Amino acid sequence: MPSSAPPEPLQFGWEEWVGLPKLGVPALRAKVDTGARTSALHAFDIETFGPATRPKVRFTLHPIPGRDDLVIPCSAVIIDRRDVTSSNGESESRYVIETPLSVNGDIWPIEITLTNRHGMASRMLLGRQALKDHISIVATDRFLQPELSYDVYTSAKMRTEAPDRALRIAVLSREDNYSTRRLVEEGEKRGHTVEVVNTTRCYMAINAMAPEVHYDGKRLPRFDAVIPRIGASITPYGAAILRQFETIGTYCVNGSAGITASRDKLHAHQIMARAKIGMPNTAFAASPRDTGNIIGLVGTAPLIVKLLESTQGKGVVLAETRKAAESVIDAFRGLKANFLVQDFVKEAAGEDIRCLVIGGKVVASMKRTGAEGDFRSNLHRGGSAQSVRITKEERDTALRAARAFNLNMAGVDLLRAEKGPKVLEVNSSPGFEGIEGSTGKNIVGKLYETIEARVRPTPIRKRKGV
């Protein structure tokens, strides 16, 4: 076999433009230092994660000196940890990773140590190990290879061409159920590290300079994303924890405001009314003198009387006559409970449609049918489910409902009424078991696709002179 041609000789000056494509860093100015064995990269918020048998490191960097608004999160497998002595004699233990280096179309793997070089003029140091045999150094010159530009960080290319990387993800959940287990299983299958964090065991350090979330006596690490699975009974505290993650800058699949609004049924209906989203006629009153008027506002019996705090069909009563409605309302008032009165959509016949919206798309839908003799279609109450095709109007309604609460993931429950789809509820923590089982779709995989796309770096605005 003919031997391959030797590589073309390269000349490096004392400073060159390079790229680190697997880290999502297309342009970087690096100082060439043949006195150093291993290359060094500016990194901060350096934290390890993943299994002990194959640990990874998550870090962030500012590739442009003076532009701290450009933050690139990175992750890589750790190949070593070494004590490195700097030129001023100080020793530091550093994580070592391996990643490809790109120069003028030529790519080869190099080892890099991670350290904070914030005070250094160059964000990267190229050591001897990174310099191949066909590279010669001209110490009196710089930029002998083609110059790159920081303009790449101001373009959409920055996000679209960012590489896939291992993420560190937190699932806020107190329950070991199907949905939580699927989030862990699917995330790890995609190469991510997924940690289940008990919401009620979190606590917060609230200050202007360094807001933190603590857990079991330690500060929680920086996560790439948080998936909230907050139970209805702890909504206020769970939303407070989520707001803390938002303050830190962590991407949250669903925001605290959307979860809080969706859990307050009165507020939720007001939001949908403002967005002109179809729903059953609804009325609310605090005074017992208004019982007759509140029934009249909704319509004639049968009526639905629903506790504001109801979940999974609990606290929802069908009053088949006006007298029954008055009795249920009086009973709820005697318990000092807050409730809504709604029109009963007879034509739905005990069925509703759950549309699962992820990332602004309806990714699956199922028809739920209540158990025999039960007007509620909740699967937790013995209902059954099957995959169903929805109309364009139903799809648009589900999308508008999720958008009204600014939810990236939502279960939108619809009734098929004579005058078009009516939204019963928008669930900010929908379960996955029923809809994955009835449709056969990998719904959790769709969620991770959305997370992976959203955590990519964001382009920055171009400044003059950069």
TrEMBL record:
EC number: 6.3.2.-
Pfam families named among the record's database cross-references: RimK, Rimk_N, Zn_protease
Cofactor(s) required, per the database record: Mn(2+); Mg(2+)
GO molecular function, one term: ligase activity
Gene3D superfamilies: 3.40.50.20, Acid Proteases, ATP-grasp fold, A domain, ATP-grasp fold, B domain
Keywords of this entry: ATP-binding, Ligase, Magnesium, Manganese, Metal-binding, Nucleotide-binding, Protein biosynthesis, Ribonucleoprotein, Ribosomal protein
InterPro entries hit by this protein: Asp_endopeptidase, ATP-grasp, ATP-grasp_RimK-type, ATP_grasp_subdomain_1, Peptidase_aspartic_dom_sf, Rimk_N, Rp_bS6_RimK/Lys_biosynth_LsyX
Domain named ATP-grasp: residues: 269-452
PANTHER family assigned: RIBOSOMAL PROTEIN BS6--L-GLUTAMATE LIGASE, RIBOSOMAL PROTEIN S6 MODIFICATION PROTEIN
Protein name in the entry: 30S ribosomal protein S6--L-glutamate ligase
